[in-house]
Amino acid sequence: MGTETAVDGTTAVETSSSSSTANSIKAFIAGGFGGVCAVLVGHPFDLTKTRLQTAAPGTYTGALDVVKKTLARDGVKGMYRGMVPPLLGVTPIFAVSFWAYDLGKNLVYTFTPKRDAPALSTTEVTAAGFFSAIPTTLITAPVERAKVVLQVQGQGGAGKQYSGVLDVFKGLYKEGGVRSIFRGTTATLARDAPGSAAYFAAYEVAKKQLTPKGKEPGDLDLGAIVVAGGLAGVAMWSIAIPPDVLKSRIQSAPQGTYSGFADCARKTIASDGIGALWKGFVPAMARAFPANAATFVGVEFSRKALDKLF
């Protein structure tokens, strides 16, 4: 009997481990697919936000002025300038984010073995979301750096300096090595850790609220996923704008302009006032709903397809 129990226990552990690995792989792939959907829908909004955040005072009168001037100068393709870095980087970024979120949930279960209920509480989901930003930042920071540099090219009549993403990384490395490529990492983490906590928590809460009585959250239709995903994006960006402004300024400024995150905050407020920390709020919030609705539609439907495969 003792031997049989040991074998059965080992089998259970192996089965649980196999299931956990499969879920991690699915979370990784689905997250990457969702990220591609987000970039295709949201990049014009993101470009508008970044240009508002980094332009000299008086360059633009608002978000619509950014769009008008960009279209006049570069046409529709100008609204997609700088899209290659996030499109190339978004698969690993979102893949790692959703994988890390899945890992964060597993860590919660590991540290709470004697649970009253299997479902995670909102606080536990928030903690898992916060954790997801830590490994993701290692990929997000350099991709965001290249994206911002490309997005602000030509702003204020400046000439074109880089021909593409590889040229950006080559130039940044010449400028200051790996450190230059990863400039803005602290600001990225300051934006994404609380932002991701709000992001995943809002999505799970919205899903529960939208689930009809007698149904499971996994059975939601397309419309409900769109609403829950959009609200998740709004929740994230409602708190992420100030650190995002500082991140954009740090990553777009000439080398030596700021000594760090706190120095950028101090100089930004001193020169442009506290209101500068909310520059780009309108395009960010305009992007938040459709881009993140697209993200979770991509994630949910690709995850269901993967569940049928393995």
Automatic annotation (TrEMBL):
Subcellular locations according to the entry: Mitochondrion membrane
One GO biological process term: mitochondrial transport
GO CC, one annotated term: mitochondrial membrane
Keywords from the UniProt entry: Membrane, Mitochondrion, Repeat, Transmembrane, Transmembrane helix, Transport
Gene Ontology terms, MF aspect: O-acyl-L-carnitine transmembrane transporter activity
Transport is among the record's keywords: yes
Transmembrane segments: 83-101, 222-241
UniProt key word Transmembrane helix: yes
Membrane topology recorded in Swiss-Prot or TrEMBL: Multi-pass membrane protein
Principal cellular location given in the protein's record: mitochondrion
Pfam family for this entry, one: Mito_carr
Start and stop residues of the Solcar repeats: 22-107, 120-209, 220-305
Record family assignment: Belongs to the mitochondrial carrier (TC 2.A.29) family.
Protein name as it appears in the record: Mitochondrial carrier
Species this protein is from: Serendipita vermifera MAFF 305830
